[in-house]
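Quick question, first post here. What does this chain look like in 3D?
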Amino acid sequence: MWKTTKKSTLPQQLRLTDPGAREQLEALPASQVLIGHGTDRQPVGIDLDTDSPHVLVCSTSGGGTSTALRTLAAQVLHHGGDALILDTKRISQTWARGLLGVTYRCDIADIHDALLCLRAEPARHVDEHGETVDLPHLAVVFESAGHTLRQLARQRTVVRAMCWGGRGA
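> Answer (accepted):
Ran it through. Tokens below.
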């Protein structure tokens, strides 16, 4: 077992009730999301247009992943974007059910179909003349991705067996 005597330099959890937090969020352009504060209490964010269009949030159970994903998706929605919520646990992202601009999927078959629809997403960003089209950002919240991917793999195996009588596709 590892033992350390050095104090952690991680900042405290960012809360919307913290002084100045809402003002910092409102000051960000639509392409930026606030992911927290550094140890110096300065905002740390990602520009989805210039830094990276993708953000991965990963931790152990109880590590705040669901909260971080909710915060990022809410910021995208606030700026007129859309969100696709994939939540097989059915409890982690219930805040998003019924919100304008949100597609919420919790059944494995519906999640499968939603992921297939995402394949067409890059083509939506190019018009018939090959010009780039500026569309709202899309936050894809993939709750419990490891568990969901295992379920999807099992479903695919079952469907293959049913369609092909147990033979490979």
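The chain has five helices and five strands.
Helices lie at 21-27, 65-78, 108-118, 121-124, 145-164.
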